[in-house]
């Protein structure tokens, strides 16, 4: 090999040894904490893009009691950032731990640098998670939510003696000096008494743990106006407003029901009836048809009045054996028809019948003297028969004669 090749190898070896000798460990290890959120940060002065860091932790009691080399748990390996988040490892809050960090550049490691960490003592306490205000007459009600751990549990599980410092003051629109007052409470619901009615107040709350003298920062101010006795003018205004609202609601309801009523009435009972008429059609059955303006006016019918059908005169003829013997004055006709005997001529007569007795007819006025005659109905070969009484006013006035067919002849009767 050439001397140049050996020279390059020697130069690389010397440079590597120089870097390893100059590689320093990280400095200023610091824990950034809030409740149960823990992050370890550090500084490193040398600038090198190939550097990375390794972070490990172990419980402190294992270093004292273990005879063997303790097993360190690696939290971050080969990270280029100058921080390591330990929150996800759920370190025991009352425990004590030893943390260490080293740097690595191209396979060369620096020395370990260590620090101790006790969450109960070193972890910072956070402010309340939430503060809500609500008026309670002339007082203010404050609802405080506990600080939360990384698993959303209350910090009172770790600090049972946790309490709150409540700072409140009257809010002024101008920049006058504030006169603050302080109230301490372990409860989550606090009422601030002796406040002015209809006045704005601002509140800020701080978490406190006295054992290690832990105090959180104050929350951002929350402001609320107190209430008091409602003025009569405001009550009267509310009353008038409620009356107007009720009137409008009733008016709209009535209008809605009236509109529904008109719509239903116009739908089911229209004011304009459909033009249905009866057509006079002698060639076919009578049925209603819809007429239009193009319909022939000659097809229209006049108004028709329907009257009940007139009663039909019925004459009941008894059997021959039940007929009485006719009087001597009547003679049978050879044609089997008995005619009415009238001494004075033709005229109107009445017919009366009584059960089982002779029928007598009377009162026919003649054209000359108005004499009465008796009319008998005769049947060929048989005597006179009884007729049922007939009321002449029930017969239609246009009816003059009626022929009744019998088994043995035809009775010609003038009604």
Automatic annotation (TrEMBL):
Q: Which GO terms describe its cellular component?
A: plasma membrane
CDD domains tied to this protein? FN3
Which Pfam family is an annotated match for this chain, by its short name? Tissue_fac
Organism source for this protein?
Liparis tanakae (Tanaka's snailfish)
Question: What SUPFAM superfamilies has UniProt attached to this entry?
Answer: Fibronectin type III
Q: Name one GO molecular function term.
A: interferon receptor activity
Lineage top rank: taxon: Eukaryota
May I ask which residue range the UniProt record assigns to the signal sequence? Answer: 1-20
Q: Please note every region of biased composition (Low complexity).
A: 343-375
Q: Which residue windows are transmembrane per the record?
A: 235-258
**Per the database record, which ranges form the Fibronectin type-III domain?**
127-229
Keywords, ordered alphabetically: Membrane, Receptor, Signal, Transmembrane, Transmembrane helix
Indicate whether Glycoprotein appears among the record's keywords: no
Q: What is this protein called?
A: Interferon alpha/beta receptor 1a
Regions of biased composition (Pro residues) lie at 317-329
Gene3D superfamilies in alphabetical order = Immunoglobulins
**Renumbered residue ranges of the record's region Disordered:** 317-380
């Amino acid at each position: 090999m050439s001397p140049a090749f050996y020279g390059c190898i020697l130069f690389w070896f010397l440079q590597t040894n120089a870097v390893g000798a100059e590689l320093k460990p990280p400095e200023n290890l610091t824990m950034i904490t809030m409740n149960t959120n823990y992050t370890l940060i550090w500084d490193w002065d040398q600038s090198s893009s190939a550097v990375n860091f390794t972070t490990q932790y172990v419980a402190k009691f294992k270093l004292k009691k273990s005879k063997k080399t303790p097993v360190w748990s690696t939290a971050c390996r080969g990270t280029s950032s100058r921080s390591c988040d330990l929150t996800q490892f759920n370190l025991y809050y009352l425990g004590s731990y030893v943390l260490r960090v080293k740097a690595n550049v191209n396979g060369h490691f620096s020395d370990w640098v260590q620090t101790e960490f006790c969450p109960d003592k070193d972890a910072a306490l956070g402010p309340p998670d939430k503060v809500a205000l609500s008026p309670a007459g002339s007082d203010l009600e404050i609802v405080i939510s506990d600080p939360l751990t990384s698993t959303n549990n209350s910090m009172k599980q770790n600090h049972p003696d946790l309490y709150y410092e409540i700072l409140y003051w009257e809010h002024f629109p101008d920049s006058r000096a504030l006169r603050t007052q302080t109230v301490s409470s372990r409860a989550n619901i606090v009422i601030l008494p002796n406040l002015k009615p209809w006045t704005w107040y601002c509140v800020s709350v701080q978490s406190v743990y006295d054992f290690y003298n832990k105090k959180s920062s104050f929350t951002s101010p929350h402001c609320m106006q107190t209430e008091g006795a409602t003025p009569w003018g405001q009550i009267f205004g509310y009353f008038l407003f409620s009356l107007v609202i009720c009137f409008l609601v009733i008016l709209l309801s009535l209008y809605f029901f009236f509109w529904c009523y008109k719509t239903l009435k116009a739908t089911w009972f229209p004011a304009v009836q459909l033009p249905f008429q009866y057509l006079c059609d002698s060639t076919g059955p009578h049925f209603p048809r819809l007429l239009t303006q193009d319909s022939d006016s000659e097809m229209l019918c006049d108004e028709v009045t329907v009257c009940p059908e007139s009663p039909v005169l019925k004459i009941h003829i008894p059997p021959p054996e039940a007929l009485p013997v006719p009087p001597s004055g009547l003679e049978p006709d050879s044609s089997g028809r008995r005619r009415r005997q009238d001494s004075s001529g033709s005229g109107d007569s009445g017919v009366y019948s009584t059960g089982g007795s002779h029928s007598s007819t009377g009162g026919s006025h003649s054209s000359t003297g108005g004499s009465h005659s008796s009319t008998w109905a005769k049947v060929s070969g048989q005597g006179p028969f009884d007729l049922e009484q007939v009321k002449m006013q029930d017969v239609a006035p246009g009816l003059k004669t009626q022929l009744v067919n019998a088994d043995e002849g035809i009775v010609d009767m003038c009604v």
